Amino acid sequence: xxxxxxxxxxxxxxxxxxxxxxxxxxxxxxxxxxxxxxxxxxxxxxxxxxxxxxxxxxxxxxxxxxxxxxxxxxxxxxxxxxxxxxxxxxxxxxxxxxxxxxxxxxxxxxxxxxxxxxxxxxxxxxxxxxxxxxxxxxxxxxxxxxxxxxxxxxxxxxxxxxxxxxxxxxxxxxxxxxxxxxxxxxxxxxxxxxxxxxxxxxxxxxxxxxxxxxxxxxxxxxxxxxxxxxxxxxxxxxxxxxxxxxxxxxxxxxxxxxxxxxxxxxxxxxxxxxxxxxxxxxxxxxxxxxxxxxxxxxxxxxxxxxxxxxxxxxxxxxxxxxxxxxxxxxxxxxxxxxxxxxxxxxxxxxxxxxxxxxxxxxxxxxxxxxxxxxxxxxxxxxxxxxxxxxxx
DNA sequence: AAACCGGGGGT
DNA sequence: ACCCCAGGTTT
Length: 392
What we know:
By secondary structure, the protein is α+β, with helices and mostly antiparallel strands. About 40% of the residues lie in helices and about 15% in strands. It is built from 14 helices and seven strands. Strands 1, 2, 3, 4, 5, 6 and 7 form a seven-stranded mixed sheet that branches. The relative contact order is 0.09. It binds a DNA duplex through helix 6 and helix 8. GO terms for molecular function: purine-specific mismatch base pair DNA N-glycosylase activity. Its cofactor is [4Fe-4S] cluster.
């Protein structure tokens, strides 16, 4: 008896399941069985094979939780019960029905999609996920959901809930938004589908809904139900995150955007115990505080010699400098960037009678009287170090 | 205030 | 083909 050949794996996006990841043969069956007992069965878009209602609910659910969608869904299908009615409706009516749901570009796509289904597909939704995904507002995951619910097509979904379930169950580290992680998950999603059987269509409905329900109600972001009761989840027995205590760390959160690093060169013009400060503009960082003068110096690559020369040049506006030396470096961390401060100390042999009267307000401050002025924390630190006479 | 989210759109 | 955004809500 010739065996049926294995179903062709779609070559596009076919990510092999890494050899170290094992997909239990009964993964799908466990989800299916769990859904039939513990999943949701009475949502207004369930218990139908009407692709119009299924599609509409999937689009609404892309952005809003079930509880908020229900009323909108009911109103929408009451007024526009078919894809033909929607396609023929004026945009104003569609937007009015959507008003309050947010993400209005999706409402516009919804309308366009309806018109396209009517004009290009004879008013009947395709059942092939690849074809569905060509329609406006329908991506790969939504296409699979529509195909599964409306026609029992065996095709994997991968929404945020499923990504969380997979990251935890298979112990996948790395942010799911990353290309490699996401494509690995699509591979797993394919591999984890229920094995084809006599009840494939029904199984796919239960499986697809089951993954959604599991992610939404049991394998939640904050407190997965398995922590209190392992039996709450049909996957808990061999869930990697549960086994290793990683439910709090998986899925890996989006990496904090690398804080940009800026650098600046500050000059400490010293005359005896006095140091020259200047007033910062009211707006911007450290607005209205007295700070050290900063020099517009090329800092990449940083050349200490050059910076010292420039510091000397700067100081000549105030008298006769005797020497300039690197005094140290200091990193100050803001919320939105790191500032590398390089400080150059310039000692004045003599001050000129008249200082420049243009530029920001300036004054001398004694290192023994640092409390007299408000200075930015890192500048204060630099000054305190000077006061103690030390380097850094 | 920061993460999250499926798809679209820009490069 | 890849990266990033828009536009909301949730934590």
